[in-house]
């Protein structure tokens, strides 16, 4: 079940962002927030998935509106955009975002999130060696599924 308070907070932030930009505050744009923030926190969704999900729920919205709204959500800090290898762009909500890295299976395409303090230690060491304050990083590990009878392989 979606956290209604979180969705309302995201909508307020987006409304302020659109006002500062001088952009229109359309119901379609806010419906994208409803859909994105109704996903589980570790879910990644592409435009087509959002489009189909919204259409199935009775929204009348175009793919172009979803693309444009997602760009605005990324710009406003309400969404994070990922580009994994040969996959289309995937988005996740950002208000609850805690930095994490990703593992992507080459066969079943399952995306798993993980955090490891050792990675932050390495980041600090490299920053020190380059005399640089590292402000962010992105790490994606790709591997081959070795899970016997992997349920994700069956849906491909």
Automatic annotation (TrEMBL):
The keyword rRNA-binding belongs to this UniProt entry's keyword annotation: no
Instruction: State the InterPro entries in the record.
Output: FUR, Fur_C, WH-like_DNA-bd_sf, WH_DNA-bd_sf
Q: Which Pfam families match?
A: FUR (PF01475)
Q: Which UniProt keywords apply?
A: Cytoplasm, DNA-binding, Iron, Metal-binding, Repressor, Transcription, Transcription regulation, Zinc
Q: Where found in the cell?
A: Cytoplasm
> Where along the chain is Zn(2+) bound?
105, 108, 145, 150
Cofactor(s) of this protein: Mn(2+); Fe(2+); Zn(2+)
Q: Which SUPFAM superfamilies match?
A: Winged helix' DNA-binding domain
Binding positions (Fe cation): 99, 101, 137
* Co-factor: note: Binds 1 Mn(2+) or Fe(2+) ion per subunit. Binds 1 zinc ion per subunit.
Which molecular-function annotations from GO does this UniProt entry contain? DNA-binding transcription factor activity; transcription cis-regulatory region binding; zinc ion binding
Where is it found, in Gene Ontology cellular component terms? cytosol
Family classification: Belongs to the Fur family.
Q: Subunit structure of this entry?
A: Homodimer.
The name this protein goes by in its record = Ferric uptake regulation protein
Question: Organism source for this protein?
Answer: Algoriphagus chordae
Taxonomic lineage from the root:
Bacteria, Pseudomonadati, Bacteroidota, Cytophagia, Cytophagales
């Amino acid at each position: 079940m979606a956290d209604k308070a979180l969705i309302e907070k995201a909508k307020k932030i987006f409304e302020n962002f659109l006002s500062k930009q001088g952009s229109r505050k359309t119901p379609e744009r806010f419906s994208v927030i409803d859909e994105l923030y109704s996903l589980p926190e570790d879910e990644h969704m592409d435009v087509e998935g959002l489009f189909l999900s919204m259409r199935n729920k009775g929204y009348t919205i175009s793919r172009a509106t979803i693309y444009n709204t997602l760009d605005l959500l990324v710009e406003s800090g309400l969404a994070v955009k990922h580009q994994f290898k040969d996959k289309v762009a995937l988005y996740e909500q950002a208000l609850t975002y805690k930095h994490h890295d990703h593992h992507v299976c080459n066969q079943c395409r399952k995306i798993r999130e993980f955090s490891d303090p050792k990675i932050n230690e390495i980041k600090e060491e490299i920053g020190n060696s380059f005399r640089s304050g590292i402000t962010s990083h992105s790490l994606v590990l790709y591997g081959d599924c070795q899970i016997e009878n992997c349920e994700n392989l069956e849906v491909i």
